[in-house]
Amino acid sequence: MLLAVFLSGVALGVSEDPQAVTLLQQHGLHLTLSSQEDLSLLSKLRFMPHNSLAVPTLDANGRLCLMCDLPPAERAPNQSYVQRTDCGNHSVFEDAAILQVPLSTFQQNATEEHNQTFGWCELNVQKSCADAVYNKDYMLFAKSILVHELAPGVASWDQYFCFYNGWLSSEIKALQHDFQGMYAKGRDFCNSEDLIKRGSQGNTTVNDVMARWLRGHQGLSGDRPTIEDSLFLAAASCALGGGSSACDMAYCAYSFCLKDDGFGTYDECQGWDPVKGMPI
Ligand SMILES: *[C@@H]1O[C@H](CO)[C@@H](O)[C@H](O)[C@H]1NC(C)=O
Ligand SMILES: *[C@@H]1O[C@H](CO)[C@@H](O)[C@H](O)[C@H]1NC(C)=O
Ligand SMILES: *[C@@H]1O[C@H](CO)[C@@H](O)[C@H](O)[C@H]1NC(C)=O
Ligand SMILES: *[C@@H]1O[C@H](CO)[C@@H](O)[C@H](O)[C@H]1NC(C)=O
Ligand SMILES: *[C@@H]1O[C@H](CO)[C@@H](O)[C@H](O)[C@H]1NC(C)=O
């Protein structure tokens, strides 16, 4: 799942990769980890190509931001999307203490003073999900991810994550371009008892999420999440997305399909179109 990318990005920040560390230090990274055990696990994760999405870029306020891009023009021709400039107030790259607070802390409804906000916006991670919500188009988020640029193993990991959560079904594919429909589907999913008991209402922390993700990723490439990992991380996606997992659902539906011999990505799936997405 996308969190996998997020966490690899965080992992990259503490790796000994000189280029990455320099980049992050220049922008004031103070990330610390809770235990020696986390650190030794993280040290195995130095596998991100430098030009991958997992390397943060700078947002409009000069803050580090991970997964903040708009879709490439060939996927969203003639689209003029607005990018929010009010995210990152609790950047995960600037304050390690933020790893320990419940994810519900970041959720706020819109008021006259500020837009609706939630973890993806506040933490400046997977921030293009906040842009997708703002533009009322989950395809903004789905199309902004370039699966082939992800680290080896992440795509295949995401395929299982999507599959176990039921997000490769035709029911979800039918909602790719239906903002309200996808939102409602994600909200109902998040409000199910199964998801609530795994933290979808935000009583888990980034550290809890990271620990779970690392457990599922110890051998990296080729590893896959269990069903339990997938549900737990989907619950985190609910909490980080302000109560709906619709961004990740749209990403799954747009990017992957089930084939007779396994999973397909993009044009490995019959009828996939970069603009229209996956056929139903
Ligand atoms: C985008 O706009 C151009 C010029 O107005 C038009 O020719 C083209 O068909 C449009 N593409 C889509 C996918 O709407
Ligand atoms: C909401 O975000 C948009 C885009 O960044 C911005 O123009 C607008 O001022 C924000 N609204 C509030 C109430 O802050
Ligand atoms: C946002 O508003 C909804 C509906 O009014 C309410 O149920 C929810 O608790 C509010 N969320 C927050 C974080 O205040
Ligand atoms: C982030 O902080 C700025 C400055 O305090 C504020 O104007 C903005 O509304 C905040 N963004 C959100 C989403 O609350
Ligand atoms: C989060 O809340 C749910 C529902 O109350 C509960 O079942 C679960 O154990 C809690 N998780 C944590 C990590 O506290």
Q: How many H/I helical runs?
A: 13
How far do the termini sit from each other?
21 Å
Q: What series of H and E elements makes up the topology?
A: HHHEEHHHHHHHHHHEE
- Total individual domains: 1
How many DSSP E strands? 4
Q: In percent, how much strand structure appears in the residues?
A: under 5%
Helix content: 40-55%
| Stretches with pLDDT under 50, minimum 5 residues | 1-53
Overall pLDDT metric = 82
Strand order of the largest sheet: 1-2
From the spread of the alpha carbons, the general shape counts as globular
Instruction: Write out the distinct hetero groups bound to the structure.
Output: 2-acetamido-2-deoxy-beta-D-glucopyranose
Q: What Rg do the Cα atoms give?
A: 17 Å
User: Largest sheet, described in full?
Assistant: 2 strands, antiparallel
Helix-strand makeup class: mainly alpha
Keywords: Signal
Explain what you see:
It contains 13 helices and four strands. The chain has 280 residues and is mainly α. The protein has one domain. The protein has a two-stranded antiparallel ribbon with strand order 1-2. A two-stranded antiparallel sheet has the order 3-4. Strand 3 and strand 4 form a beta hairpin. Helix 5 packs antiparallel against helix 6, helix 6 packs across helix 13 and helix 7 crosses helix 13. It starts with a helix and ends in a 15-residue tail after the last strand. The relative contact order is 0.16. One 2-acetamido-2-deoxy-beta-D-glucopyranose (NAG) binds next to loops. One 2-acetamido-2-deoxy-beta-D-glucopyranose binds next to loops.
